[in-house]
Structure to design on (47 residues):
């Protein structure tokens, strides 16, 4: 399964949903440049 994931990421590298750039390192969902721009839910919030 890990080999399949590596092959998939090589052919189709993960992209940032905010700016569409290739995400590095590959395990992150959003690139480092966009992470500070994403508003996170603050208190009070539901569990």
């Amino acid at each position: 399964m890990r080999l399949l994931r590596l092959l998939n990421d090589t052919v189709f590298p993960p992209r940032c949903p905010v700016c569409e750039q290739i995400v590095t390192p590959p395990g992150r969902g959003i690139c480092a440049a966009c992470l500070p721009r994403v508003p996170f839910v603050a208190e009070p919030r539901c569990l």
